[in-house]
Amino acid sequence: MRTTIGYTLESIGYVVGAQGLVSFASQTLFGTEWGWMHKVVDLPSTAYLGIVVVGLALIVGGVKMRKATERQEVA
Q1: How much is the pTM?
Q2: Which of 6, 14, 26, 42 would be a feasible disulfide site paired with 66, CB 3.0-4.6 Å?
Q3: Do 26 and 34 touch, CB atoms closer than 8 A?
Q4: CA 30 to CA 17: how far, in whole Å?
Q5: Distance separating alpha carbons of residues 27 and 44, to the nearest angstrom
Q6: What does the CA dihedral 46, 31, 41, 11 come to, rounded to 10 degrees?
Q7: What is the pLDDT of residues 26-64, one digit of tens each?
Q8: Burial class of residue 30 in the structure, from the number of CB atoms within 10 Å of its CB (0-12 exposed, 13-18 middle, 19+ buried)
């Protein structure tokens, strides 16, 4: 079960991080809105970097959860 939760957190982290990165890049470099994140929240471009960090934290948390479960199964 923890392995499934780890994969789920990791997958959500990839989506959230990618959307934050796309939103930041589109606002900063092109002055337009890309992705779906701007339809959910209206943030300044620097706040989308915080969304990227949240995505990275979810990825790291999911990987650690999976690795801990795999180590318990081996032992």
Answers
A1: 0.84
A2: 6
A3: yes
A4: 19
A5: 8
A6: -70
A7: 999 998 888 888 888 888 989 999 999 999 999 999 999
A8: exposed
Cα distance between residue 52 and residue 17, in whole Å:
4
Q: Both tokens of residue 5?
A: 């939760």
Q: How far is the C-alpha of 56 from the C-alpha of 62, rounded, in Å?
A: 10
Contact 9, 68 (CB under 8 A): no
The number of C-alpha atoms within 13 Å of 52 and in the hemisphere containing its C-beta is 12
**What is the DSSP code (8-state) at residue 58?**
H
- Sign (positive/negative) of CA torsion 60, 58, 53, 14? positive
- Whole-number pLDDT of residue 75: 60
Answer for the pair 19, 51: CB distance below 8 angstroms, yes or no. Answer: yes
